[in-house]
Amino acid sequence: MASSSSSTPAAVREMQRDLESQANALSKIQKDISKNHQVRKQYTIQVGENELVLKELELVNDEANVCKLIGPVLVKQDLAEAKANVKKRIEYISAELKRMDRALKDLEEKQNSKKESIFRLQQKMQAVQAKA
């Protein structure tokens, strides 16, 4: 009987180490989720700004001068080229948003799986400690 009780504290210590490792992994996943939300927020703002620019460009008549700010200098730009550039930017940012959405879904699944794993380990530890 003595060998059973001496292995129990070692088993509990091993479970505690595993629990700590899993908690650290969960913390990293949660930080990644938070970072994803921040980046998605920036992209969403950028899409909105670019859509406003495109609406403004649609209102401009074909003879109007369109300029682009490059550093401290305003450079004249062709209206069709300006519209095409803004549309490309919107497409690119929208694609990035979709990619971020997929990454977020993956991270949330990993988070849920890790939480479940931690919960099962905690239950197992409680059962082992209750027997001791």
Automatic annotation (TrEMBL):
<dbReference type="Pfam" id="PF01920">
    <property type="entry name" value="Prefoldin_2"/>
</dbReference>
<dbReference type="GO" id="GO:0051087">
    <property type="term" value="F:protein-folding chaperone binding"/>
</dbReference>
<dbReference type="GO" id="GO:0005737">
    <property type="term" value="C:cytoplasm"/>
</dbReference>
<dbReference type="GO" id="GO:0006457">
    <property type="term" value="P:protein folding"/>
</dbReference>
<dbReference type="InterPro" id="IPR009053">
    <property type="entry name" value="Prefoldin"/>
</dbReference>
<keyword id="KW-0143">Chaperone</keyword>
<comment type="similarity">
    <text>Belongs to the prefoldin subunit beta family.</text>
</comment>
<feature type="coiled-coil region">
    <location>
        <begin position="90"/>
        <end position="124"/>
    </location>
</feature>
<dbReference type="InterPro" id="IPR002777">
    <property type="entry name" value="PFD_beta-like"/>
</dbReference>
<dbReference type="GO" id="GO:0009409">
    <property type="term" value="P:response to cold"/>
</dbReference>
<dbReference type="GO" id="GO:0051082">
    <property type="term" value="F:unfolded protein binding"/>
</dbReference>
<protein>
    <recommendedName>
        <fullName>Prefoldin subunit 6</fullName>
    </recommendedName>
</protein>
<keyword id="KW-0175">Coiled coil</keyword>
<dbReference type="GO" id="GO:0016272">
    <property type="term" value="C:prefoldin complex"/>
</dbReference>
<dbReference type="GO" id="GO:0051131">
    <property type="term" value="P:chaperone-mediated protein complex assembly"/>
</dbReference>
